[in-house]
Design goal:
- There is one protein chain.
- The chain is built from nine helices and twelve strands.
- It has helices at 9-21, 24-31, 35-49, 66-89, 109-123, 136-144, 208-218, 232-240, 289-307, and strands at 54-57, 61-64, 98-105, 127-134, 150-154, 164-172, 175-179, 199-203, 224-229, 246-248, 263-267, 275-282.
- The longest helix has 24 residues, at 66-89.
């Protein structure tokens, strides 16, 4: 026998709108119902669940309690799933439509997003992909806040986060870049020790900088970081000017830089630790059908890149 549930989907919807608005008055206006109806629904929800979801302060609106913050993500997931069930019951399940919020690590975006948008336009024209480009910590924060369905990022410690799930879809081995006229530019492979006495240009993003420093430390090299920037292309442009070498992971299709310079790419020994490119999501949160479809497309794109 199916167990009874005390709360209703309507209560959850009113709760989510009130949480977003931070005010019963604004929520009632958005929902086009009386404020007393919104207040009663939230009161009954708190009673049925046995928790307080809002702190109410006169003149300061509504503030989510820790229990309310947890419920907010769960309610979003449940209502999204309910909408899927409704569409499928009406025979609309085969035509996916609606928004999918995707996070993408800033340096991965140029490599994966154009192919993703192109594929999605052909296969699922009803899906609207909203992208947030950021670094790892910002993506993790957005995932936990429910602002993203999932993120594509380097697995820089995320696999050890207890509330996040990271699925590796590709590997990005590190390589060295030097100016086209550098003494090592004609080589195919290089040891980091061969660059120990030269200045370095560092891609200075949180976690990324630690990863690059760990590679150099493992090789016994203390880098002379002369320049640092958070822009992938600025790193390449500085290197093309002969201002130092750098270590990167993603490989552009061209050796030309935005500034018109040219760099050479040198492979590192196979023992050098590669980075996993991962699809990261919050554990125990069911993905919508459209989010699962977008994740599948990214898996296919990553697989093609690995074999192509």
């Amino acid at each position: 026998m199916t167990p009874a549930v005390g709360f209703t989907l309507v209560q959850l919807r009113y709760f989510l709108v009130a949480a977003e608005c931070g005010s019963l008055t604004v929520a009632s206006a958005r929902l086009h119902i009386a404020q007393s109806a919104v207040s009663a629904a939230i009161h009954n929800l708190e009673r049925d669940l046995g928790v307080q979801v809002f702190v109410r302060r006169r003149g300061r609106g509504l503030t989510l309690t820790p229990a309310g913050q947890r419920l907010q993500q769960q309610a979003r997931d449940l209502l999204s799933r309910a909408q899927e069930i409704e569409r499928e019951a009406r025979g609309e399940g085969e035509t996916l439509h609606g928004p999918v919020a995707v996070g993408c690590f800033v340096t991965l975006a140029p490599y994966f997003l154009p192919a993703l948008f192109s594929e999605c336009t052909v296969r699922y024209p009803g899906i609207e992909i909203d992208v947030v480009e950021a670094e790892t910590e910002q993506l993790a924060t957005a995932l936990r806040a429910g602002r993203l369905d999932f993120a594509l990022t380097y697995d820089l410690g995320l696999a050890t986060e207890p509330d996040l799930s990271a699925e590796s879809v590709a590997q990005a081995p590190p390589h060295v870049i030097v100016a086209a006229g550098h003494r090592l530019a004609g080589r195919d492979r290089v040891e980091l020790t061969e660059l120990a006495d030269e200045p370095m240009v560092l891609l200075d993003l949180p976690h990324s900088r630690d990863y690059f420093r760990s590679l150099l430390a493992a090789a016994g090299v203390t880098p002379d970081v002369r320049y640092r920037t958070q822009s992938y292309e600025t790193v390449r442009s500085l290197v093309s000017r002969g201002l130092g070498y750098s270590v990167l992971n993603q490989r552009p299709a061209t050796s030309q830089t935005y500034g018109g310079g040219e760099i050479a790419e040198l492979r590192l020994p196979d023992r050098t630790a590669a980075l996993d490119v991962a699809l990261v999501r919050v554990k125990d949160v069911t993905r919508t059908a459209r989010a699962r479809a977008v994740m599948d497309m990214l898996r296919e794109i990553a697989a093609r890149d690995a074999t192509g």
